[in-house]
Structure formats: structure tokens, C-alpha cells
Amino acid sequence: MRAPPSCPRWALLALALPVLALPVLALPAERLALLPHGEDHGDAALEPGDDVHSAALELSTALRFYGAAVHSLYVTTNGIIAVNEPSSEEKYLGQFPVSFGAIAPFMADLDTTDGRGNVYYREDSSSDVLQLASDYIKRGFPESAFDPSSVVIVTWKLVAPFQAPGEDHTLEEKRNTFQAVLASSDSSSYAIFLYPEDSLQFYSTYSKNGDENISAMVGFSQASTNYYFWEKPGSYNVIANDEDSIRNLYKSSNAGKQGIWVFEIGSSSDSIVPAKISSILESIEPNEEDQEMTSKPFTSDYGSTEITQQYITGSTDSTEEDQHLSFYSPQNFPTAKAPPRQFRIQQFPPQPPQVIDVEEFDETGIVFRYHTDVQQTCANNRHQCSVHAICKDYPNGFCCSCIAGYKGNGRQCVAEGSPQRVNGKVRGRIFVGNNPVPVVFENTDLHSYVVMNQGRAYTAISTIPETLGYSLLPLASIGGIIGWMFAVEQQGYKNGFSITGGEFTRQTEVTFLGNNEKLVVKQKFSGIDEHGHLTISTEMEGRIPEIPSGSSVHIEPYTELYHTSSNVITSSSSREYTVTEPERDGVASTYTGAYQWRQTISFDECIHDDSPPSAPATQQLSVDSVFVLYNRDEQILRYAMSNSIGPISDGSADINRNPCYTGTHNCDTNAVCRPGTGNRFFCECSIGFRGDGNVCYDIDECAEQPGLCGSNADCNNQPGTYRCECVEGYQFAADGRTCVAVGLYVVNHCQRGTHNCDIPQRAQCVYTGGSAYICTCLPGFSGDGRACEDVDECQQGHCHPDAFCYNTPGSFSCHCKAGYRGDGFRCVLGEVEKTKCQHEREVALGSGGAFFPRDARVGHFIPQCDEHGHYLPTQCHGSTGYCWCVDRDGNEIDGTRSGPGVRPPCLSTAAPPVVIGPSVRPDTVPLPPGTHLLFAQSGKIEHVPLEGNNMKKSGAKALLHIPDKVVIGVAYDCVDKMVYWTDISGPSISRASLNGGEPTTIIKTDLGSPEGIAVDHLGRNIFWTDSQLDRIEVARLDGRQRRILFDTGLVNPRAIVLDPVRGNLYWTDWNREAPKIETSYMDGSNRRILVKDDLGLPNGLTFDPYSSMLCWVDAGTKRLECMNPNQLGRRKIIEGIQYPFGVTSYGKNLYYTDWRRDAVVAVDRTISLENDNFQPHKRSRLYGITTAFAQCPGGHNYCTVNNGGCTHLCLATPGGRTCRCPDNTVGVDCIERN
Question: Sorted alphabetically, which SMART domains does this protein's record hold (predicted)?
């Protein structure tokens, strides 16, 4: 059973805290009363049991749920109300969303047997009950005119957790009581969850399928839609999903009174809308644990691009396991189909704007000059404009302007509505309070994520020491400059990015009133880098007042005036903040501080366009929902705020409240909100995306427009756009778009494959500088290098007279004649000594199987040997039909015994006999440019070039000959262009460069049977499985710093793949008793079973970085299947395949190796059809297969730069990284941190 999906920690960090940051009054609380319930009030009682559900409760008024009408409901023991008949609990407990659709006030494994509680339910239309429900709804939605006509009341009263024999008995007496009220009218429906004080005494239940506790889940789940080949999960919303958040349900609220949670669950909208805070929470004391919120990465459709909020938390952010509170505030409430949306929660009196004097510009250094002394034109300067801009000539020069659908200054343009990321470094020297010693910090990470169509900016600065962190909380504008850059633009007004394109310098002077401390902040924004992220550097120096450790800071919404005048923007304001110190003797003191803020922004505008400015010289920035937090454990400083820019206003008139300007729309995060009249608006997908605006999918321009980048470049699709990358030997010309040969006439023909040497199996091209090269024949061949012939060594008498000589291309072999034994170079009379397998087979045939008495009662077992006398890796009993795997000594390998008719995928650990005499060199043959398939065939690795989605079989050649090895797994490092492989005959792990050269063994100790191998090209690590030692390990690319990730719960681990961008690890275990596919983060945390049903022998596994699909081949079920790891449902691509082993993906095709066909088979996964196959010239078993990409897939993780700041292993996690030490750390100065 999987743990319920948790949520990335920073995703809701800022979403709930504006609620918790409201002034809190400790008022005496009136105990929350449930709506009338029980059999005395006409309720039906659910049958006692552990997994019981009611018959369909037919509704007099249809329930509106995610925009659809529901006419019947099912009440269950396990704390959910299902909209379709629920499946058995083992199929959904611990998982969310659920396929049948549900409203879940407390989903857990509950039990009402033996009088341990009751579940009551009814539909009620009496006036008093309708009025009670209406009152609760109006608490959260005071402006709603909702008038319910029917109410469904479900009450779980004093229900117990399921207890298995021998479990912790401390839960035996604990009971939970809670109630769900569903109120409906003809057009809309609301849900009310009620949790009386102290009514929740347990927050998780014990898993029947494992040894862990599963936290309860609170949320909403739309039913899945079934298609012919797959199941499309519905939308879902998570309110609470860990023990801390469940514990706080009765202490918190989104409707102004603790324990009351109200949601609009269905109307014309197809999303869930949380209540608005209508008053200060009654009797709720905030605590420090309540200061952090989390969210789930949401996906919307099978096979589509993830609609995910990748909230940045700095390079030291925690993993999903390290959580505190995960229920959602009413401020923002993400839906699986729609991104988090912003809701106004309280009308704050706006700060009256002040008209200020624009001070003389203090020269801080212009970023770039946009003009030169010599007139420039578009003809030779088009490359200075963004690819999403047009260039226009003027009498004195040229200017750039973004095309429709993009925002910016023309030099830098981004798609309207697309989320933006900002990365940079911070350094500082700051005195705190009266301390004479400054706090100095260098090279600290700053990361920011902006939901552009909401104007909401999240900023995290990592590794800020506690002595400074709390005192920096009032300075939200350190990150506020990013909010100004991407503020929601009201009609006729421009945010900072539209004006500057993200290229400017900012100098700020902060003067704290009272003691007159001053702080100077200098920031430089350098535009968009090669990853599509804005870059920033920040320096801070001065003195700031000290704020006591553990304090909280609250900043009210505010406005600022920005004045623009010829390359300069100035702004100044006074700002107040409230500090609440930690409690002492039960009393928390509060005081107010203030500072003056003066800033000058210098940027480079186009001076040649003399048309009137498109935006007023003075604009007002409105900032609300300001959130600041310092986490002392992680040493992370966080700021979040919502920003909009528009006209100067005193706030007296309710103008510009269109949802597009307030951020309360439901557009996709990759969509633009287009305002209409009044409160009307519509959503339009950003450039590079397709959809209805509520859900947007990435367009694969590379697939839809072949040849987009020209013949000398590769096209790489990226979210919302694409990137052209010149192939080797070419570089971008001055226009930034056309790929031309490197150098005027200098070409490395050996590297490009344009030489006229003989084929790589016979000759070698040697580059000698410039465009020159020479050709030389390989050993065993003769000629001038352009034409090489095989030397017949058998004519030279190398073998013994009593041996046969066999000539082979480039080599030869000698074999003693019958009646002689030896190596072929020396043969003597006598029979060859029998091997252990041959001896045991002979004895078994002659004596009735004394070596294997366990099978004597059903028939004799006869060992099977290969032509060289080694044990065949798969041994079968002739009478019973059972088969199992054996090691090189004939011993059975645990977990491999299969029933009659099923042959386990056993691997031979015995290498073929070494050929005596000259042999093919073990060097790798340099690969020509392009993308290739690499696959293992016992003692060699071969490659097949790919042209588009087709195998160029005529170009297939051996890449590497290692005849004394048994190569199983292969992996490719696209950065250094190295191939890595596992050898089970050694055993060992080795690598070689695809540019040519000898292989290097990087690991050869403490290995049993290394099989699957994967390369993290971003973090520079390798991962592998060992089916004999039953473990999964990680090490650096050179084999150093080994660390065991898992050594329990594994029987026959085989394939292993990575998603390094998201920090996920996947592997198969073909344990015959319980085959499974598992996943974890790349640091080994959050391990869970991904697939366990309907598996046979899951051999091969591949993760496609472009479609985010995980696919596998199964030699037991004889199927090739795919799934999105973040969604429910599997898709059968093809059935009836023979005996697949390895699999890889490229483009629309999946390629797998097949033991029965001795072939590489291509399958078009879009139409589920085999479309090609390739059989090597020498027929034998094919093993692992991988794709050698011409260019690395796009993306990065926190280990990409500077090893993530780790001293040793940097292991990626979703939205972060973990620093880990190798297992043998004796005498090693290593630091571990999350």
C-alpha cells in the first residue's frame, strides 16, 4: 500500500500563512456543535464492519461536483462519501486521487465492528437543517446568495482505527468523530466539514499491506474517465495529508470559526473553491509548527505535460518526508486540473499613495547601452533581438519589440502567462543590532518562482544564519523586485519586465527609523540564461535592527509609486511592520517598526523609437498577501507576495477588481487571463501551449515541424518553446540561428565521419590537426588505411600441428583436434577434463540423481550444460516443469523458481572461452554524429544509428569488443559521451568514451551480479542494481564514493532508470513470488511500490524525459506497458511479444531486445504497432539497451551547479537535493544535509 501523495513543501508555504498571520485574538470558544444526527433524527446506520459501504443513496436534488451532476452517493466506513460505487479498500486506501470519485472528510482505515462507533447518514430538506447548513456556508461565503433545497448529512461518530493483532495497543481506546454536510441547490453545491474540539484522537492508521502507518487524507477527488486503452484520472484537491495537518483541523478553519471548513464543490466552475475568511479566527493560538504548508504536484491528463508548481526552496530545501502542516488555506487552493488560485481573504484599508519628488539620479552604472556612435540597422543586428521579437529600423538606429503573445522589451521576451523562474547568488556583510561583528555570507543561493498570471512571486534565500535570518524578515522587497517585474498588468500599464526585459541594476537604500540604521542593497539582473531562467546577483551591506530569534513578522498590504524617466525608474516609500516576539511567561510582546525605502532602477531602453510611451510615467504597484518566514532548521529565508500594477488610486472606488487583475481566475499556470467587461474574463493558453486555457498542454514543435532547425542542428522540445542546438562541428553564425561549420576551412573529418578511411572494423582515422588526418589499418588487417584486407594468420602456422586454425576478420583461433586437449597452440593426447556440470550430469544419468535428492520422489533432475561444459543459467526439471536460475557453481538462486511453462530470465555468469591469439582491439570505435541505440550482446556492445524514428540498419556496427565479458546493462552519459556497462562474469562496472579509446573498469570489488545501470548526467552519478547482493547502490561517475541506497526488500532487482530533473528513481524486481516496480527519490527517501498487480517478469524499464512516461517490458505477461508515474492508470502498448529483456525510448518509438528473436524490435507507442526490427549479423542473446542522445535532454536539478554545494554525493529530490556521504567515510571530511 502506498503512502498518500504528499505535497512539495514550498508549494503552499505562502498560501496559508497570510491567514495564520492575521491578528489573532484569544477569545473564549463556543464548542462546535454537529448538525443533528442519529437514528432519532431519521438517519440510516451503516452496517458495522471494517470495509462497508451503503447502497446507493438516491438524491432528490443532484449534487454538483467538479461541474458535473451526481444523482446518487455511497457512504463508507472509511471516512469518504463516494460518487460511484467504491472498490475494496485495499485498492484505494493510502492512495489519492481515487478512481471512483470521493468527498473525503477523513479517509483512513476505520473500523466499526463490535460496537466501536457508528456511521449515520441521511438526506434532509427540513427548514431548520437547511438553515443551519446555510449559516455555515455564509460564514465562509458571506456574499453568496446560496439557498439550499437539500442537505446530505454523514456523521462518523466515535469510530475506531483498524487494529491488526499484535499492533500498538495505544490506539485501542482512541475514537474520532466528524461530520460532512453536502448542501445543494439546482445550480450549485457546497461541502461543510465539521471537526469538534478534541474529536480527532488518532491521525493515521496501520497499513494492512505493510509495516507503516498511513496518514489520513482529507480532500476531494473527481472520478476517473475510462478510455479504451487507459484510464484518465480526474481532478483532485488535497486539504490535509499528514499527521500534523490532520491534528490542526479542529484548531483551524477557513470560515472564521475553528473546526469549520467550507468549500464550493460544484457550480458553473469545474473546480473546488475554498471559503473566504469572513472574520478573525475564534480562539486559535498560532504556533510555529503552523507556519509551513505543503502542496502536491498536480497533473491533469494521461501522457500530458505536468502542470506542476515547481516552487523553489533554495538548494537546501527539505524533501516531501519533512513536513509539518499540509491543509490548504482559503487564500489559495490548488486543483489537480488547475494551478493554485488566489482569493482575497480580507479587505485591508489601502495605504494612501503619496506623490513623491523624483530625486536626482544617483549613477549606479547603466546595464547596457542600446545604441552606439555608429548607426546600426536590423540588417546586421537582428540577433540582438529576442527570437520572439521583431526588429524595426528608425532614422538613427533600430529597436526591438516582442511579438503578440509575448512580454518584454524586445531584447528579452517571455510568453504571456507562462510561469517564470529566477536564479541567482546573494552575498552580504551586515551588522545586526549593536553587535560590533558583522555577519558575512558569500555565494548564497536565491531562487524565485513566479505564477505570472497571478502576479504571485515566491522567493527563497538559503543558508542565511539564524543570527541574521529573523532580522531580515521585514525586508520583503529584496524579493519584491521580482514581484514588480512580473506584476499583473492592468490595461495600459507595464510591469518591470515589459519595461526592462529583466536587464537592469537596482540600488536601494533602507533607513530604519528610530536608531537610523542603514542598509544598502545592490542587485543586478542579467536577463534570461540558456535555461530560460532570469539571473540575478545581490549584494547587501550595512546595519539593521535586531529581531529576536523565533519572532514572526507581519507586513500589511501596501502600495508604491514607480516613476519612469529616460532609463531610470525611482521609487520611495515608508513602510511599517509588526514584530511578535516569542512568548515569555505566557505573554508575547508585539511592537511596530518602520523604515524608509528609496530605490533607483537603471536600465537600457531603446532611444531611437520617439513614439509616445505606451505606459504612464507614474504607475502604482499594489502588493498584498505579503508573507515572510525564516526557517531556523533549514536556514532559509522566504518571501511571498501578490503584485499588480496600474493607475494611482486611493482605494475608495472598487475599480479594476476583474479576476485577471486580482488573481482569482482559474486559468492554467501556462495561460493568459484576458479581462472582459465587469468581472468577465477568458483564459488563453500561452504561446507554445495548446488547450482551452483552463488546462494547457505543451506543443512539441520539433515533432510537428520537422526540419525546424535546419540540417545542421538538432531540435530539442522544451515547455512552451524549443531549442536548436548545432551538431558537432558546427556553431551558430552571427544571426544566432544558422549553424555553420566551425572555423573557415578547419574540419575534423575523423570526428564528423567525413573521412575516406575504411570502415571502423578494419581501419582507424587519426586526426593530425587542421583539416588533416591519416588512415591506418587495424591489427589483423593490411593496406593503406583507405582499403584494408584481412590477414590470414592461418597461413602463417601460428597453431599447433595437431590443431585446427580458424581465420576470423582481424584475428584467428586455434582448437585442438579430437583426441587432443590444450589451448590450440599446444595440444597433447588425452581427453579434456570434465567440468563440474558435465560430471554431475553423467552421475545423474547413471545413478538416478543422487546429487538432487529433493526431486527424486517425482523424477530425476538432470543438470543441463552448455557446449563448453558450463551450467546453463536456466535449469528445468523434466518431470515437474519447474525452472530456476543457478549461479556458475550450479547453486539455485533464491526467488527465481517458476511454475511449469514459465522460464525465468536467468543470466549466464560464465564468459565464453577466451580466443587465443591476436584479437580485435578492445578500443571503442568512434561514433558518427547523431542519436544511436546502444545494446549489449554478451561480449560486445553494438550500435544502430537512428534517422528520425527509424533504425538505419545499414550503419549498425560493433562499438566495443570485450569477448571475455558478459555485458548485461548499458547506460549513456550524454555530457561526456561515455558508455557505461555492467559485467556479471567479473563481476565489474566499466566505461569507455564514444570518441574512441580503451575501456576502464571503475568498480570491481564488493559486487555480486550487477545488472541494471543508470547515469545521472546532471548530478554526475551512476546507480546500479545487484541481484546477488540484493541491493541498489550509487557512486560518482568514476566509481568513487559508493553508497548503498537499499539492501532490504529486494529479491531480484534488475532494471533501473532515473528522472534526474524531478529527482526520481525507478527499478524493477522480478521476484517470482511478488514481482514489482518500485520508486523513490534519488537520495533513497520516499520509497514506495509503484506497480505490483498483473506483473510477471518485469525485465526492462525506461523513462522518456520528453513525455515523462515510464515504460516496461514483461517476459511473463509478454506485454509492453507505459504509465505516467504521477498518475493512476497503465496503458498496454503491445501484447503477445516473445521474451523481452531491455527497453529504451526515442521519439514516438520504444525499442526492446528480445531473447527469442535475437533482435531489437521497434514499436510505435502512439498506435501500438511494431514497425521494425533489427537482427545483428551474429545471432545470440541481446541484453540491455539504451539511447545515446545527440544532445542531452533539457532541464537541470539542484546538483547541476557546483555539485549542489555538497562535499561528496549530491542526490536530487523533487525540488531540492540531499548531500550524502559514502558508506566508507573513515578519515573523510564529509557533511550530510537535506
Answer: EGF, EGF_CA, G2F, LY, NIDO, TY
